[in-house]
Every structure is written in C-alpha cells, then in structure tokens.
Amino acid sequence: MTMDDLDAMSAMLGDPDVMTYYPAPKSRDEAAAWIEWNQANYARDGYGLWIIETLADDFVGDCGLTWQNVNGRSELEVGYHVRLDLQGRGYATEAATACLEFARNVVGARSLVAIIHPENAASRRVAERIGMRHVDDDTDGPVTRTVMGIWLA
Fold first, then answer.
1. Residue 23: is it exposed, middle or buried by C-beta count within 10 angstroms (0-12/13-18/19+)?
2. Cβ distance 82 to 11 under 8 Å?
3. Res 140: pLDDT
4. Separation CA 30–CA 103 (nearest Å)
5. What pLDDT is stored for residue 142 in this prediction?
6. Calculated CA dihedral for residues 108, 111, 114, 118, nearest 10 degrees
7. What is the Cα–Cα distance from 114 to 143, expressed in whole angstroms?
8. Is the separation of the CB atoms in 71 and 138 below 8 Å?
9. How many CA atoms lie within 13 A of 48 on its CB side?
10. CA 88, CA 108: separation in Å to the nearest integer?
11. Average pLDDT of each block of 10 consecutive residues along the chain (153 residues)?
12. Rounded to an integer, what is the distance from CA 45 to the centroid of its chain?
C-alpha cells in the first residue's frame, strides 16, 4: 500500500456503507493516515494491510495483519475491507486465508484473531470460513466487539 493507492483507499474508506461498523467514514486525510500507518507497520513488523486486486489489477480493498489491543493484551489480527460493489464474491475470504497462511508460515504466529463489530454478520462469516470461532469479547472500546480466533501452532 502506497500513496499511489490514496484515491482508491479514500473512496472505499470514505464509503458510509463500507464503514458502517466504524465510528464514521474516513476523510481523504484519514485515508492518507491509514496508508502511512500501514507503511509504519511494514517498516516495524514486515507486514500490515495490503491492497487486494483482481488479476486484471482492479482495486478490490485491503487485507492483512496488524497488532491490536484486545482487553489489554497484544493480538495479531487479520483485517479486511472490500469495496461495496465487490462484497459477497469471496475476495475477503480468499485474502484472509492467504493472510492466515502468511501468519502461520512466515510470521510464525501461534494464534490469529479477527475483531468484529457484533452486528457485522458478513465479517463474522469470513472469519468462520477461515476456521475462526468466538474466543472472547473485546470490552476496551465504546462498543463491545466479538473476537474470533484460531490457533495456528
């Protein structure tokens, strides 16, 4: 993910339907900060959220691994966003599966989580399709979020 992706990322992260389960859609400046955050993750961890594209190089969304705070502990999370017009076609599941394998085989992670708003049924289905099950509830934020997880080691 680079600043060359700003237009596509800004359109997706600024879409109120895509961002239904976030406090608010992101502005263009916030989308730029999102890209910078991921670049900092790449520099620190060697991974972050990556751009999802079709074989024809069409922008689909983002997916990847980031460290998140869950009830006061650091957990490796797989996160994903897909453009509204491409949701429901398996892109998030395919990308999340690749990230799970990366976490297991490259990162050497022992476990992986997905932190999901309790009303986000589509995101929960993606997590379930890659083998995750409910393991906890994250009560650190303003909304208690469902933590899906899987052991990798």
1. exposed
2. no
3. 85
4. 27
5. 86
6. 180
7. 15
8. yes
9. 15
10. 30
11. 98 98 97 98 98 97 97 97 98 98 98 97 98 96 94 92
12. 16
